[in-house]
Amino acid sequence: MTEIYKDQEFIEYVVKALVDHPEDVKVTRKVDEMGVLITLDVHPEDMGMVIGREGMTAKSLRTLLRVIGAKNNARVNLKINEPEGSTRGHHRDEVAPVAAAETQAPVADVVAETVRPVYEAPKPEVKRTLDDVMNDIRL
After folding, report:
1. Which of 32, 119, 120, 132 fits 128 for a cystine, CB–CB 3.0-4.6 Å?
2. What is the pTM of this model?
3. 43 Cβ partners below 8 Å, 6+ apart?
4. Using DSSP, how many helices (H) and how many strands (E) does the chain show?
5. In the chain, which residues fall in CATH 3.30.300.20?
6. How large is the average pLDDT for residues 13-24?
7. If we measure between CA atoms, which residue out of 83, 75, 64, 78 comes closest to residue 28?
8. Sheet holding 35-41: strands in order across?
9. 57-88 pLDDT, tens per residue?
């Protein structure tokens, strides 16, 4: 017989209220030396609702679980499993080969064109004298 604990029951209730496919929500609970691990499985279309914008919904769920755990003197963590068939994270890997096949260009050339640096260091400012600044103002 499977026992349902308060933390497991809570997360199941909240997630089922959030998603479009509540029948696909599966919550499992595992206890080990690190504490309680609650694992959440949802329908692939519902992942966005569970994660939330910038991960805020998932972060809130984890915070509430920690509060419940603190009340019961237990450390509770939430793991959200990525469902099968999910395309999250695979899009970037597939862009370059598809573009290379369409243009008949080598993959390395296509990757070099599509990859942009995430961070560009600021260019050092040229030190100017007071006379240079005053000359600019007078123009």
Report:
1. 132
2. 0.59
3. 19, 20, 21, 24, 25, 83
4. 6, 3
5. 6-80
6. 94
7. 78
8. 26-32, 35-41, 76-80
9. 999 999 999 998 888 888 999 999 987 766 65
